[in-house]
Amino acid sequence: MTESHAKYLIVGASHAGREALAAIRMHDPEGRLVMLSGEKHLPYSPTILPYVVSGRSLPERTALAGAEWFAENRAELVLDARVTGVDPAARAVRLADGRRWTYDRLLLATGAEPVLPPVEGLERVRHHVLRTLDDALALRRHAATARRAVVLGAGLVGLHAAETLAEAGLDVAVVEMRPHVLAEYFDPRASALIRETFERHGIRMLMGRRLERAAGTEPCRLGLDDGTELEADLLLVAAGVRPATAMLAGGPIATDRGILVDPRMRTNAEGVWAAGDVAQADGFLSGRPRVNGTLPEAVEQGRIAGMDMAGDADLVPYGGGLPLNTYGFFGRHAVAVGAAATPEGEGVEVHTDEAGGYCRIVLKDNRLIGLAAIDRLVDGGILWRLIQRRTDLAPVRDRFLSHPLETARALMSQGWR
User: Fold this and answer.
1) By three-state DSSP, how is residue 233 classified?
2) What are phi and psi of 21, to 5 degrees?
3) Residue 116 has pLDDT above 80, yes or no
4) Which of 24, 52, 179, 321 could make a disulfide contact with 136, Cβ separation 3.0–4.6 Å?
């Protein structure tokens, strides 16, 4: 069995891992640093995958970092290195091919993996998921010969894919068991505006329906819980993801929905950190542990983990997960930050404005806790900071409600220097 050692070992090569690597090198320029990736491709962002399916992004141009970046940062990237086990007591990880890496400090940034819902016959029907570059390439090849597509799930991945497939000329239907699209981010009115845009572009939106059974080859036959029967040449399952924690099964590292971490991204195991879509950290608004699988959170968590691993005294502990999503669809633009879908009541005030677009502002005690906007110019990053800083908006309340972008920017320039 081949064994190697690294001072810093990072498992996972997307945003959290890359940010951790950069943070480590800012404080420790020399310690041996190795990044293990389970894929054969250079590191890339999962957010680029719909554009690979559409052909707008070429596979060879998706890399977040190339060989020269790793060389400049004195880091080693090991591809096709899938970790199947972690032994914190021995400070070692085991790879699928039998290799073994030992470490002084380990970061688990393994991301998330697709979830297949319990549908009768689904495992026997040809279907696609969209989480890796190889997934995107396979979906693109199949779409070139298909006429009818069904997308299971109306989250960000499902809607991106449905738009791409429709623009490629396919007849597309979206099946979603919840009554609203993007329900975890947007309120029902904003969700309805997004759904209506998809319907105007010829996509059939079957909301509040559940896929019960699947059978056949091409076309496959799909039966919904209300008796609706669909046929599809292409089936994409985009019903959600879960943190990729299989390599921890039976081990001592504490998990719930994801790997449980503290505000420094430390796990319960000495010398082990976790960050990104695999980590479960406290939420900013709720204070309860949650998985917050967004790109900004992956970057923030990775930076904190890397600083702590390297012993950087300037580290500011994680303040809690706060969702921030931006979404472009059919030439329109949507933003959701914080508790944008929170209903009125229990001390929460909601202000909605549809002039020149749609904007929903959620306040509690004159402090912003969420905002959703469609075709309105807002700065999600500044709004995210307003929520984090619990900025009292009482002195500028009316101006903020009518002009959130300008008011937020003024607050930033006045008080955040």
Assistant:
1) coil
2) -60, -45
3) yes
4) 52
